[in-house]
Amino acid sequence: MPLYFFHLMHGDDVAHDLEGMRLPDIETAKAEAIASAREIMADAMLRGEKLGKRECQIADKTGTVLLTIRFEDAIP
């Protein structure tokens, strides 16, 4: 299974995923990123934080960004 890395962007801050996650395909990685985005936003709102601009970049093992998920797009 391919290894995907989920780098979190919040404004100018970047939290690089150094471990990654083995998943069957990019669609599964996208679903994982959306679920994580929803959890992060819920936790931030419970703490009274402003959400601001947040994204998750899904990258492969070479560091190539395959997909970017904007947190606002994770809200149904």
- The share of residues in extended strands comes to 25-35%
Strand count, sense and barrel status of the largest sheet are: 5 strands, antiparallel
What integer is the average pLDDT? Answer: 94
* Count of individual domains: 1
Question: Could you say which structural class the secondary elements and strand pairing correspond to?
Answer: alpha+beta
Q: Give the SSE order as H and E letters.
A: EEEHEE
Measured between the Cα atoms of the first and last residue, the distance is 29 Å
Helix content: 25-40%
Give Rg in angstroms.
12 Å
The total strand number stands at 5
Number of helices: 1
The poorly predicted ranges are none
Shape field: globular
Account of the 3D structure:
This protein is α+β, with helices and mostly antiparallel strands. It has one domain (3-74). 28% of the residues lie in helices and 33% in strands. It has one helix spanning 26-46, and strands at 3-10, 13-15, 21-22, 54-59, 65-70. Strands 1, 2, 3, 4 and 5 form a five-stranded antiparallel beta sheet that branches. A hairpin with a 5-residue loop joins strand 4 (54-59) and strand 5. It is globular. 13% of the residues are buried.
Secondary structure elements and pairings:
Elements: E1 3-10, E2 13-15, E3 21-22, H1 26-46, E4 54-59, E5 65-70
Antiparallel strand pairs: 1-2, 1-3, 1-4, 4-5
